[in-house]
Design brief:
The chain has 232 residues and is α+β, with helices and mostly antiparallel strands. It contains seven helices and eight strands; from the N terminus they run ββαααββαβααβαββ.
């Protein structure tokens, strides 16, 4: 999974009651907002401008490939931007001033796709899954969450609460997939995390992800990733 946690110092975090709005983007809308999505990702790369631009380019390349997968879905989280006072009633008295909302700022995104039954599997995912999960994939009930981009505060500010933005994004992805299936059976989310990426692993565990339980098809110790699932 691509997990990014931008540290926007100086920005006040919204309260749980004034949380970001989450909405799905169509493929055309994703193309229209590539710049914003790339900027959001690159803010976590650190380093000099060259490294920043390289991280952004790699992310957009991966996104352009994944968006072509059948059933691909991408959610964005947005927050309104307050742009100073505006006069009301033609006077400048303090009692006549109000605040004007000007557009939105992108604060996070999450994306993924139904795990395909046919080859090739995403990043060799089938080698990590027990037979019962393979059966879920066969009926469209296994959804790979391949990217989750949120602010650093989301990792540290009550990660176990339902209103945590990462939890809201991943829950909405699975709910939308469930709604798309006949009779609305529960859908399980799955992802792969590089073994060396302990920070991402800790963050996902704090948001409710759990290790995949094997059924005797043990994953080799040399396997490059951990498999995690979330859902029922």
């Amino acid at each position: 999974m691509a997990l990014n946690v931008p540290d926007r110092r100086g920005r006040q975090a919204p309260s749980p009651l004034e949380a970001e709005r989450i909405r799905a983007l169509s493929r055309r809308q994703i193309e229209d907002r590539y710049k914003e999505l790339g900027d959001l990702y690159a803010e976590t790369s650190g380093g000099d401008p060259r490294a920043w631009n390289q991280a952004r380019a790699l992310f957009l390349h991966r996104l352009a490939v994944e968006v072509q997968r059948p059933g691909f879905a991408l959610l964005v989280a947005e927050r309104g931007v307050l742009q100073g006072p505006a006069e009301v009633g033609g006077t400048a008295g303090a009692q006549d001033l109000t605040h004007r909302w000007e557009g939105v700022v992108l604060t996070g995104c999450a994306y993924g796709f139904p795990v395909p039954v046919q080859e090739p599997w995403w990043r060799g995912l089938d080698g990590y899954l027990p037979r019962d999960l393979l059966r879920l994939a066969a009926c469209g009930r296994l959804f790979a969450i391949s990217g989750l981009i949120v602010d650093s505060r989301v990792r540290t500010h009550h990660p176990g609460r339902d209103w945590n933005l990462a939890r809201r994004l991943q829950r909405r992805l699975l709910a939308d997939r469930t709604a798309a299936l006949a009779d609305h059976p529960p859908v399980l989310g799955v992802t792969l995390v590089d073994r060396a990426d302990t920070a991402t692993l800790r963050a996902l565990r704090s948001w409710g992800w759990r290790p995949v339980r094997t059924d005797g098809r043990a994953t080799p110790l040399a396997a490059p990733c951990h498999a995690l699932v979330i859902g029922p």
